[in-house]
Amino acid sequence: MKNSATMWNMGMACAYLIGIIILNKQFIVWLMRVSTIIFLFLLTSLQFLMAVPVNGQKMSDCKVTIKLEDESLLAGLKKIEAQTNFRFYYRKSEIKEITDLNIAFSTRTVENTLYELLKNTDFSFRQVNNNILLERRRQETGYTVRGRVIGSDHKPVELATIQIMKVTNQSIVSTALADTGGRFSLKVYEQGDYLLKVSSVETDSLIQKVIVGNAEVLEVPDIVLNKSAIQLKDVTITTTRQLISRSLDKLILNIEGSIYEKGEDALKLFNVIPGVYVSGKEIVFRGSQGVTVYIDNRKVLLSGDQLLSYLRSIPSESIKSYELKAVPGAENDAQNGGVIINIVLKSEYKYGLSGNVSSGYWYNKYDNTKATTFLNYRAGKFNFQGSFNYFWTPAFYEDNISQQFKSTGIISKQTEKYDERYHSIGYNASVDYKLNSQQTVGVSYNMFTNPGSVSSTYKTDIDYLANIKASTVDSSLHTKKSTTFRYVNQMANAFYRNKLDTIGSKLDIGYSYISYGLRDPSALETEFLNGNGAESHSRDSLFTKTIGKSMVHVANIDLEKHLFKSLVFNTGSKFTASNTDYSMDYRNGLNEQSPLDPLKSNRFLYSEYILAFYGTVAKSFKQWDFKVGIRAEQTNYHGKSVTTEQTIGRNQWNFFPSAFLNRKFGENHSLTLSYNRTIDRPGFRQLNPFVTYVSLNSIQEGNPNLRSYFSNNLQLEYLLKRKYSFTVGYQNTNNAITENLTNIGDVIISRDENITDNNNVFTSLYIPIKLTNWWEINTSATLRYRTIDIHGTEALNRSKFTQYLRTASKFNLRRKYFVEVSGFYKTSDFYGIYDQQRVGKLDINIKKSFLNDRLTSSFELQDPFHLYKPRYEINTAEFTRNVLRNRLDFVRYIGVFFTYNFSSGKKQDNKENVDAAGNEARGRL
């Protein structure tokens, strides 16, 4: 029945793909091209498949690095074979039922790894040359060690961990948990001397020697565990897992088990990733590259305040790791600005209820508060999860601007102040159900909205001087723009996963529905003053109202097949259908009852359909790893202005290859070469042909003629001792979308256009140094040389050499104090096609744990010396503009934060991390 179900599922998948082929003849041509490319890749790699060197070695000396999460013994053996010259011999019928094995990520000898794999089985192993034989132990040689664990109060200690190890090499033979009565039972298969290690939360650990003789059952006297001794109160026990690890195509930051596991949130942890930094409302990599955020392989389709608030609502206690893909592969959407960072949430949860609550207060210019909760309930085959978060985070910035218009010589001194009263609420609910050990289904829903309306005020004060030498104001403008903003962002998702075998093969099918709606009424009024400060003529007033809605449907199917000798094949397809409807009314007045201006008002309809197919092949050898792939996407879009009847449209195929090649030189050195091609599509709102008034003298125009643009990325990384890295890279982009500023008189017009070609050469390094057991310094630096060719009325070529340095000193102090002092410095760089001056920042974070690490508090001091003052300079043929940003929310503040964790029950792994129709469309709404 199991094989029949698997064949039925594979049959349905094939029928689905056949249906697509019948409906789209162009797919046949594409499939032939892809098949030819993959065949050539395999053919040129055949020499590696056929020639693997063999050297004699001992399993007690040879080391492997593996990790198992609810995987089979067969999967573990294949991972060992992939990294060594050993080959295993066994009866498959005897070991195929050994499943659900878990081993933490670590480097061990093959011998110790096998002890871990077989410790709760009746199998033994022995080496013959380069072969390892697995065979059942004789039942009559088994011996039972049992006893009871009690506390100093003579009450049973439940769920204590008991391990029995050989005295000779201290390899773990068997492990057990004490039951509710404190009793345990362990089995060993050889007579001799053993060490019995007993440990439990809030008690001292204990190790005692036991001797297994002829008796089949050895009764151990009651083991008494005392409360933790006073002299041990300041000791911090940490995991041996590396904070940072790397695979062929990604860097992994292991949060679980690290100093960052408690009392943090997802946004703060971005600053821990080498080369990544949260700057204002942007997450940047290597000082200038953008970051696309995923959670469990699903793209977080939010931006700005919404993205920051959402990431703040995810507690570090629910995060397993971060995965950084500096060069994404073909399995990822080709639409990815910059690099991909995937947040992997924990999949291991206990039976019963577990979760955490957190709150915080911080002050920047206003009072800010947050309250979040995360709950998980595990019962039988069901896993329920929910979260709620609330934020009161007023936003603001203050700019000082000076301008000179070259044709008239007029100088303007300008101050812009933006203030926003911002509430936000987020909900998330999901449930997974295991149909059987292979198949899982699940649904989830999340919503992000603001209660009531967001209220914002934009004030612009401009003083005009006749020329650069003038000392008195000639005239002034004072503009106030008041806006109330309402939005709802929702996503519903369903997925099905079928684990096709015990070595990692799987089939995923998913569907997502995304909706986004907004209402954005604004009233703008301008006063005109003469040199004496009196109003010179009547005020100018304008009322605008934007109403928009977007709907996106996404369906995906993905197959991952593990073949012989660590050969992995991935293929899949995804279909995305997007529809948006935006309208903007302009009224000559200050409210909705004012007269409509039909010449400016407009409505824009846009529809887009993207059909994607991909295939990748990955192979591992002893010293070599490679992965090649190709992705094909057909984009069909159509836009129409209801008012002007102007239309836009395009239907085209694009191909996106990717390739990764890694060569290891012993255990301490490796080189990785990576390449990919990506696309950047304009956002839906960028295409709307509307004019948005920031002030009477500053407007933003949409551009329905924007086109997608493409980038090629190539980089080579050298890795030393799996932690020090040195990278060189090159990127080129043609017809990139860039903000272009022009003017009509003293009115500045901002418009996105396809006007630049970029060439980018960089070198980057990451150096972590552990000076003492309690002091560590992590440093990353990037040197970048960029040239841009600007198309327009006058072709222009510009170049810059930019240096970016970030460092963090981390102190693990006594009494569970943790202090981090971090900062960055960046020299002059491009701001679009214009200039950004040097900028820096320094931050301080102090953490303290209480109640056996269940309660974590932190004190944060961000930019206390007010170093972060970005300055932008714009110099065109018509005008010069210098902008200094004095204040910005989220950059400079002082705050305190608290998190409390609770849990109960036995840890189980039930929640599936599935890319359930994850898509790239929602981020463009």
UniProtKB/TrEMBL annotation:
Main location: membrane
Alphabetical UniProt keywords: Cell outer membrane, Membrane, Transmembrane, Transmembrane helix
One Pfam family in the UniProt entry: OMP_b-brl_3
Gene3D superfamilies associated with the record: TonB-dependent receptor, beta-barrel domain (2.40.170.20)
Spans through the membrane: 6-23, 30-52
Domain Outer membrane protein beta-barrel: 499-900
InterPro entries to which the protein is assigned, alphabetical: Beta-barrel_TonB_sf, CarboxyPept-like_regulatory, OMP_b-brl_3
Subcellular location: Cell outer membrane
PANTHER family per record: PLUG DOMAIN-CONTAINING PROTEIN (PTHR40980), TONB-DEPENDENT RECEPTOR-LIKE BETA-BARREL DOMAIN-CONTAINING PROTEIN (PTHR40980:SF4)
Protein name as catalogued: Outer membrane beta-barrel family protein
Source organism: Pedobacter panaciterrae
